[in-house]
Design goal:
alpha+beta; 6 strands
Length: about 140
Amino acid sequence: GTLDDQHIACKVETGRALAVAGLHPATGGSGAELCSGDMLLEALVACAGVTLKSVATAVEVPLTTGIVIAEGDLDFRGTLGVAKEAPVGFEEIRLRFEVGTDAPQDKLDLLLKLTERYCVVYQTIKNGPKVSVTMKRV
């Protein structure tokens, strides 16, 4: 990503398009740029959806329809630095699948279990990997 020299934004080259992330409207943003928190939830939806479809194919669960929904709760006071007791970041994330299928419940239970196990973004969020941050002058 590169910092935008005109706005409070960061331009992210995705390989397919340029995504411009900025402040969420709740933190003073215009809403014209993408919100990185929303992008996190969108990445979870994308990964979970692809994983669900892959697993459904592998375990032979026919899906006629499918919707993947991710929701998250956060206290904007934390990221704005206006309340030291407020955490920064999502306090809770909920992932939900709504599927059309005539598969028996035991197959749906297996589908959910394997989707959780093999979804990279879900496992990354759930298990909190070691993360490091550095900065250098250029």
